[in-house]
Amino acid sequence: MSKSFADLIKKISELDKKKVAVAAAQDTNVLEAVKAAKERGIADAILVGDEAEIRRIAAEINMDLTDYEIIDEPDLASAAHTAVSLVHDHKADMYMKGLADTKTFLKSVLDKEVGLRSGKQLSHVAVFDVPGHDGLMFLTDVAFNTYPTLEQKVDIIKNAVDVANACGIENPKVAPLAAVEVLNPKMPETVDAAELTRMNNDGEITGCIIDGPLSLDLAMDAEAAIHKHATDRKIVGDADIFLFHDIDAGNLVYKCLVHTTKSVNGCILVGTTAPCILTSRSDTFEVKLNSIALAAIVAHNMK
Q1: pLDDT-wise least confident of 4-8, 139-143, 188-192, 288-292
Q2: Strands 137-140 and 123-129
Q3: Model confidence at 128, in pLDDT bands (50, 70, 90)?
Protein backbone atom coordinates (compact mmCIF):
# COMPACT_ATOMS: atom_id res chain seq x y z
CA MET A 1 0.00 0.00 0.00
CA SER A 2 1.35 3.43 -0.95
CA LYS A 3 1.37 5.74 2.08
CA SER A 4 3.03 8.68 0.34
CA PHE A 5 3.77 10.02 -3.11
CA ALA A 6 7.34 8.80 -2.67
CA ASP A 7 5.94 5.27 -2.27
CA LEU A 8 3.68 5.77 -5.28
CA ILE A 9 6.48 7.00 -7.53
CA LYS A 10 8.74 4.15 -6.44
CA LYS A 11 5.98 1.64 -7.21
CA ILE A 12 5.15 2.99 -10.66
CA SER A 13 8.83 3.26 -11.62
CA GLU A 14 9.07 -0.53 -11.15
CA LEU A 15 6.21 -1.17 -13.60
CA ASP A 16 6.05 -0.85 -17.39
CA LYS A 17 6.53 2.79 -18.33
CA LYS A 18 3.30 4.46 -19.43
CA LYS A 19 2.86 7.14 -22.10
CA VAL A 20 1.07 10.46 -21.65
CA ALA A 21 -0.33 12.59 -24.46
CA VAL A 22 -0.07 16.29 -23.60
CA ALA A 23 -2.45 18.82 -25.14
CA ALA A 24 -0.72 22.16 -25.84
CA ALA A 25 2.54 21.11 -24.21
CA GLN A 26 4.19 24.56 -24.53
CA ASP A 27 4.14 25.25 -20.77
CA THR A 28 7.20 25.40 -18.53
CA ASN A 29 5.79 23.59 -15.47
CA VAL A 30 4.21 20.91 -17.66
CA LEU A 31 7.43 20.24 -19.57
CA GLU A 32 9.43 20.16 -16.33
CA ALA A 33 7.00 17.58 -14.94
CA VAL A 34 7.10 15.53 -18.15
CA LYS A 35 10.90 15.63 -18.09
CA ALA A 36 11.03 14.47 -14.46
CA ALA A 37 8.46 11.73 -15.14
CA LYS A 38 10.64 10.36 -17.92
CA GLU A 39 13.82 10.58 -15.86
CA ARG A 40 12.19 8.75 -12.93
CA GLY A 41 10.81 5.97 -15.10
CA ILE A 42 7.17 6.96 -14.64
CA ALA A 43 6.09 7.86 -18.16
CA ASP A 44 7.18 8.85 -21.63
CA ALA A 45 5.27 11.60 -23.42
CA ILE A 46 3.91 12.65 -26.78
CA LEU A 47 4.03 16.45 -26.92
CA VAL A 48 1.26 18.02 -28.99
CA GLY A 49 1.35 21.78 -29.47
CA ASP A 50 3.37 24.68 -30.84
CA GLU A 51 6.64 22.90 -31.67
CA ALA A 52 8.74 26.06 -31.86
CA GLU A 53 7.57 27.16 -28.43
CA ILE A 54 8.01 23.65 -26.99
CA ARG A 55 11.61 23.61 -28.22
CA ARG A 56 12.27 27.12 -26.89
CA ILE A 57 11.03 26.21 -23.39
CA ALA A 58 12.84 22.86 -23.48
CA ALA A 59 16.12 24.65 -24.19
CA GLU A 60 15.53 26.94 -21.19
CA ILE A 61 15.03 24.01 -18.81
CA ASN A 62 17.78 21.81 -20.33
CA MET A 63 15.30 19.24 -21.60
CA ASP A 64 16.64 16.92 -24.30
CA LEU A 65 13.82 16.34 -26.78
CA THR A 66 15.66 13.66 -28.80
CA ASP A 67 13.50 10.76 -27.59
CA TYR A 68 10.17 12.64 -27.56
CA GLU A 69 7.54 12.51 -30.27
CA ILE A 70 6.42 16.06 -31.04
CA ILE A 71 3.31 16.84 -33.08
CA ASP A 72 3.25 20.44 -34.26
CA GLU A 73 -0.23 21.86 -33.71
CA PRO A 74 -0.23 25.53 -32.61
CA ASP A 75 -4.04 25.83 -32.36
CA LEU A 76 -5.13 24.92 -28.80
CA ALA A 77 -8.39 23.21 -29.73
CA SER A 78 -6.74 21.21 -32.50
CA ALA A 79 -3.91 20.24 -30.15
CA ALA A 80 -6.44 18.93 -27.62
CA HIS A 81 -8.30 17.01 -30.33
CA THR A 82 -5.09 15.42 -31.59
CA ALA A 83 -3.80 14.54 -28.13
CA VAL A 84 -7.03 12.96 -26.90
CA SER A 85 -7.25 10.98 -30.15
CA LEU A 86 -3.89 9.38 -29.31
CA VAL A 87 -5.30 8.11 -26.02
CA HIS A 88 -8.60 7.06 -27.63
CA ASP A 89 -6.62 5.05 -30.20
CA HIS A 90 -4.45 3.44 -27.45
CA LYS A 91 -1.28 5.15 -28.64
CA ALA A 92 -0.99 6.71 -25.17
CA ASP A 93 -2.22 5.60 -21.75
CA MET A 94 -3.31 8.92 -20.25
CA TYR A 95 -4.24 12.43 -21.26
CA MET A 96 -2.78 15.64 -19.80
CA LYS A 97 -3.79 19.28 -20.01
CA GLY A 98 -0.99 21.63 -20.93
CA LEU A 99 -1.56 25.23 -21.97
CA ALA A 100 -5.08 24.46 -23.23
CA ASP A 101 -7.85 25.97 -21.09
CA THR A 102 -10.03 23.66 -19.01
CA LYS A 103 -13.12 24.15 -21.20
CA THR A 104 -11.24 23.12 -24.34
CA PHE A 105 -9.63 20.17 -22.55
CA LEU A 106 -12.96 18.85 -21.20
CA LYS A 107 -14.65 19.33 -24.57
CA SER A 108 -12.04 17.02 -26.10
CA VAL A 109 -12.49 14.46 -23.29
CA LEU A 110 -16.24 14.38 -24.02
CA ASP A 111 -15.89 14.30 -27.81
CA LYS A 112 -18.26 11.61 -29.10
CA GLU A 113 -15.87 10.39 -31.79
CA VAL A 114 -12.36 10.58 -30.31
CA GLY A 115 -12.97 11.37 -26.64
CA LEU A 116 -12.74 9.24 -23.52
CA ARG A 117 -16.38 8.75 -22.55
CA SER A 118 -17.06 5.57 -20.58
CA GLY A 119 -20.74 5.98 -19.75
CA LYS A 120 -19.86 6.67 -16.11
CA GLN A 121 -20.12 9.91 -14.21
CA LEU A 122 -16.85 11.82 -14.50
CA SER A 123 -15.31 13.00 -11.25
CA HIS A 124 -12.17 14.63 -9.90
CA VAL A 125 -9.98 12.97 -7.28
CA ALA A 126 -7.33 14.94 -5.40
CA VAL A 127 -4.83 12.80 -3.50
CA PHE A 128 -2.94 14.39 -0.61
CA ASP A 129 0.19 13.37 1.24
CA VAL A 130 -0.06 15.40 4.47
CA PRO A 131 2.76 15.40 7.04
CA GLY A 132 1.56 13.88 10.31
CA HIS A 133 -1.34 12.05 8.67
CA ASP A 134 -0.94 8.29 8.31
CA GLY A 135 -1.54 7.43 4.67
CA LEU A 136 -2.80 9.19 1.58
CA MET A 137 -6.03 11.21 1.67
CA PHE A 138 -8.41 10.98 -1.30
CA LEU A 139 -10.63 14.06 -1.67
CA THR A 140 -13.60 14.01 -4.04
CA ASP A 141 -15.10 15.96 -5.71
CA VAL A 142 -13.32 19.29 -5.30
CA ALA A 143 -13.17 20.57 -8.89
CA PHE A 144 -15.62 19.00 -11.34
CA ASN A 145 -19.10 18.13 -10.02
CA THR A 146 -20.76 21.17 -8.49
CA TYR A 147 -23.79 19.88 -6.58
CA PRO A 148 -23.90 16.12 -7.20
CA THR A 149 -27.10 14.14 -6.79
CA LEU A 150 -27.29 10.98 -4.71
CA GLU A 151 -26.93 8.87 -7.86
CA GLN A 152 -23.90 10.87 -8.95
CA LYS A 153 -22.35 10.49 -5.49
CA VAL A 154 -22.56 6.71 -5.92
CA ASP A 155 -20.46 6.95 -9.10
CA ILE A 156 -18.11 9.48 -7.50
CA ILE A 157 -17.47 7.00 -4.67
CA LYS A 158 -16.87 4.15 -7.12
CA ASN A 159 -14.42 6.28 -9.11
CA ALA A 160 -12.50 7.22 -5.96
CA VAL A 161 -12.45 3.59 -4.81
CA ASP A 162 -10.83 2.65 -8.13
CA VAL A 163 -8.10 5.25 -7.55
CA ALA A 164 -7.57 4.07 -3.96
CA ASN A 165 -7.38 0.45 -5.17
CA ALA A 166 -4.72 1.44 -7.69
CA CYS A 167 -2.73 2.93 -4.81
CA GLY A 168 -2.92 -0.37 -2.93
CA ILE A 169 -5.88 0.26 -0.62
CA GLU A 170 -8.09 -2.80 -1.07
CA ASN A 171 -11.17 -1.85 0.97
CA PRO A 172 -11.02 1.91 1.47
CA LYS A 173 -13.03 3.69 4.13
CA VAL A 174 -15.32 6.37 2.69
CA ALA A 175 -16.55 9.27 4.83
CA PRO A 176 -19.51 11.21 3.37
CA LEU A 177 -18.85 14.50 5.15
CA ALA A 178 -21.23 16.90 6.83
CA ALA A 179 -21.10 19.47 9.62
CA VAL A 180 -22.60 16.91 11.99
CA GLU A 181 -22.39 13.15 12.39
CA VAL A 182 -26.11 12.42 12.79
CA LEU A 183 -28.95 12.42 10.29
CA ASN A 184 -30.87 15.70 10.24
CA PRO A 185 -33.76 15.94 7.74
CA LYS A 186 -33.14 19.69 7.51
CA MET A 187 -29.59 19.06 6.27
CA PRO A 188 -29.80 17.29 2.87
CA GLU A 189 -26.13 16.27 2.93
CA THR A 190 -26.77 14.15 6.03
CA VAL A 191 -29.74 12.48 4.36
CA ASP A 192 -27.62 11.52 1.34
CA ALA A 193 -24.80 10.35 3.60
CA ALA A 194 -27.12 8.10 5.57
CA GLU A 195 -28.56 6.66 2.36
CA LEU A 196 -25.09 5.95 0.95
CA THR A 197 -24.25 4.16 4.19
CA ARG A 198 -27.42 2.09 3.93
CA MET A 199 -26.63 1.19 0.32
CA ASN A 200 -23.19 0.02 1.41
CA ASN A 201 -24.62 -2.01 4.29
CA ASP A 202 -27.14 -3.64 1.92
CA GLY A 203 -24.51 -4.54 -0.68
CA GLU A 204 -25.60 -1.98 -3.28
CA ILE A 205 -22.21 -0.26 -3.11
CA THR A 206 -19.34 -2.71 -2.66
CA GLY A 207 -15.56 -2.68 -2.41
CA CYS A 208 -15.46 -0.11 0.37
CA ILE A 209 -16.71 0.78 3.84
CA ILE A 210 -19.03 3.80 4.02
CA ASP A 211 -19.86 5.53 7.29
CA GLY A 212 -21.83 8.72 7.23
CA PRO A 213 -22.79 11.35 7.90
CA LEU A 214 -19.43 12.07 9.45
CA SER A 215 -17.85 15.35 10.54
CA LEU A 216 -14.36 16.03 9.26
CA ASP A 217 -12.77 15.72 12.70
CA LEU A 218 -14.24 12.23 13.24
CA ALA A 219 -13.13 11.22 9.76
CA MET A 220 -9.46 12.08 10.29
CA ASP A 221 -8.78 12.28 14.03
CA ALA A 222 -9.15 9.27 16.33
CA GLU A 223 -8.89 11.55 19.39
CA ALA A 224 -12.01 13.41 18.27
CA ALA A 225 -13.93 10.12 18.22
CA ILE A 226 -12.92 9.48 21.83
CA HIS A 227 -13.99 12.95 22.97
CA LYS A 228 -17.30 12.67 21.10
CA HIS A 229 -17.95 9.13 22.40
CA ALA A 230 -18.06 7.88 18.80
CA THR A 231 -15.55 5.03 18.98
CA ASP A 232 -18.27 2.59 17.89
CA ARG A 233 -18.34 4.09 14.37
CA LYS A 234 -16.94 2.14 11.41
CA ILE A 235 -14.59 5.06 10.73
CA VAL A 236 -12.68 6.36 13.72
CA GLY A 237 -10.23 8.92 12.40
CA ASP A 238 -9.03 6.53 9.68
CA ALA A 239 -11.00 7.54 6.58
CA ASP A 240 -9.27 7.08 3.22
CA ILE A 241 -11.80 8.81 0.96
CA PHE A 242 -13.39 12.11 1.93
CA LEU A 243 -16.64 12.65 0.01
CA PHE A 244 -17.83 16.26 -0.16
CA HIS A 245 -21.48 17.07 -0.68
CA ASP A 246 -20.71 19.96 -3.03
CA ILE A 247 -17.82 21.64 -4.80
CA ASP A 248 -17.75 24.59 -2.39
CA ALA A 249 -16.96 22.45 0.66
CA GLY A 250 -14.46 20.34 -1.26
CA ASN A 251 -12.63 23.26 -2.84
CA LEU A 252 -12.32 25.09 0.48
CA VAL A 253 -10.73 22.07 2.16
CA TYR A 254 -8.49 21.46 -0.86
CA LYS A 255 -7.15 25.01 -0.84
CA CYS A 256 -6.80 25.04 2.94
CA LEU A 257 -4.56 21.95 2.74
CA VAL A 258 -2.54 23.43 -0.14
CA HIS A 259 -1.94 26.81 1.49
CA THR A 260 -1.67 26.02 5.21
CA THR A 261 0.17 22.69 5.32
CA LYS A 262 3.40 21.31 3.91
CA SER A 263 1.40 18.71 1.99
CA VAL A 264 1.93 17.55 -1.58
CA ASN A 265 -0.83 16.41 -3.88
CA GLY A 266 -1.79 15.12 -7.28
CA CYS A 267 -5.11 15.37 -9.13
CA ILE A 268 -6.80 13.37 -11.88
CA LEU A 269 -10.14 13.18 -13.64
CA VAL A 270 -11.61 9.68 -13.69
CA GLY A 271 -14.75 7.92 -14.85
CA THR A 272 -13.15 8.05 -18.29
CA THR A 273 -11.69 5.22 -20.38
CA ALA A 274 -8.22 6.50 -19.44
CA PRO A 275 -7.12 8.78 -16.60
CA CYS A 276 -6.95 12.49 -17.37
CA ILE A 277 -4.47 14.84 -15.72
CA LEU A 278 -6.44 18.02 -15.11
CA THR A 279 -4.33 20.48 -13.14
CA SER A 280 -4.44 24.25 -12.91
CA ARG A 281 -1.88 26.46 -14.68
CA SER A 282 -1.01 27.80 -11.22
CA ASP A 283 -0.19 24.31 -9.90
CA THR A 284 3.47 23.66 -9.20
CA PHE A 285 5.78 21.36 -11.07
CA GLU A 286 5.55 18.94 -8.14
CA VAL A 287 1.74 18.75 -8.32
CA LYS A 288 1.92 18.05 -12.05
CA LEU A 289 4.57 15.35 -11.56
CA ASN A 290 2.53 13.71 -8.77
CA SER A 291 -0.55 13.84 -11.01
CA ILE A 292 1.32 12.04 -13.81
CA ALA A 293 2.43 9.37 -11.33
CA LEU A 294 -1.13 9.01 -10.00
CA ALA A 295 -2.54 8.71 -13.53
CA ALA A 296 0.13 6.15 -14.42
CA ILE A 297 -0.70 3.88 -11.49
CA VAL A 298 -4.43 4.15 -12.28
CA ALA A 299 -3.77 3.42 -15.98
CA HIS A 300 -1.75 0.36 -14.96
CA ASN A 301 -4.56 -0.86 -12.72
CA MET A 302 -7.19 -0.31 -15.44
CA LYS A 303 -5.27 -2.64 -17.75
Answers
A1: 4-8
A2: antiparallel
A3: very high
- CA of residue 57 relative to chain centroid, distance: 27
Indicate the residue type of 293.
A
Rounded CA-CA distance 187/177 in Å is 12
- Confidence (pTM): 0.94
Mean pLDDT for 186-195 is 96
Check pLDDT > 90 for residue 277: yes
Element (H, E) at 28: helix 28-39
Domains and CATH numbers, the chain: 17-118+272-302 (3.40.50.10950), 125-260 (3.40.718.10)
Q: Strands across the sheet with 137-140, in order?
A: 69-72, 43-49, 18-23, 94-97, 276-277, 264-270, 123-129, 137-140, 241-243, 173-176, 209-210
CB 20 within 8 A of CB 43: yes
